[in-house]
Amino acid sequence: MTDAADAGAVPTLYTWAGGEEAFERLTSVFYAKVLQDDVIGPLFAQMAPNHPQHVALWLAEVFGGPPRYTDELGGYPRMVAHHIDKAITEPQRRRWLELLLDSADEAGLPDDPEFRAAFVGYLEWGTRIARTNSQPGADVVRDAPVPRWGWGVAPPYDGG
Ligand code: HEM
Fold first, then answer.
1. Is residue 6 scored above 80 in pLDDT?
2. pLDDT score of 160
3. pTM, whole model, 2 decimals?
4. Residue whose CB lies within 8 A of the most ligand 1 atoms, among 82, 95, 96, 128, for a mutation test
5. Is 48 touching ligand 1 by the criterion CB < 6 Å?
6. Given phi > 0 = left and psi -120 to 50 = alpha, else beta, which region is 85?
7. What is the CA radius of gyration of the chain?
8. Which residue, 42, 59, 88, 111, shows the most beta carbons closer than 10 Å to its own?
9. Is the per-residue pLDDT at 96 higher than 80?
10. Which option is the CATH number for 11-133: 1.10.405.10, 1.25.10.10, 3.30.70.2760, 1.10.490.10?
11. 109 with 24: CB under 8 angstroms?
């Protein structure tokens, strides 16, 4: 990228990741691991068969893709309702994150430092909010827009 006009062409994290198909690949690898896992598997024992696809649509929207989770599934209130009273512990949060990052490698998501920094940034943030909101008696914000996550301080490296 050499001039100001190109600066407007920074791709979203969604596009950089490979679009909707990449997030579907990610969550299908992830939930296969989750169901086998002794720390978090039991939390997901009753999940619906389309849960992985729903989470793929959530992540796609967060990272700059089309607002399908909002338009088709009920947006933030639906996501938050699924976490209420789940009493997620810190070891469970950590395991969720660790399995998701392993899945990103296996699913072939981009592994450049800039993409992974932004990706992990959102996941650290989101998993901590999920843990807090899941505690019995938590004062939960039940409605908000689906967050939109960007590159932060390190935009994609253009090699120049
Ligand atoms: C960035 C972090 C997270 C995101 C983006 C996320 C996203 C979601 C979404 C979108 C749903 C609802 C799916 C639907 O619409 O059908 C959901 C449900 C759920 N999430 Fe999360 N989640 C996160 C973190 C966690 C963590 C850390 C845990 C526990 C270790 C967890 C446990 C669950 C459970 C148990 C459900 C309900 C599954 C069921 O339907 O039985 N989530 N999550």
1. no
2. 67
3. 0.95
4. 82
5. yes
6. left
7. 16
8. 59
9. yes
10. 1.10.490.10
11. no
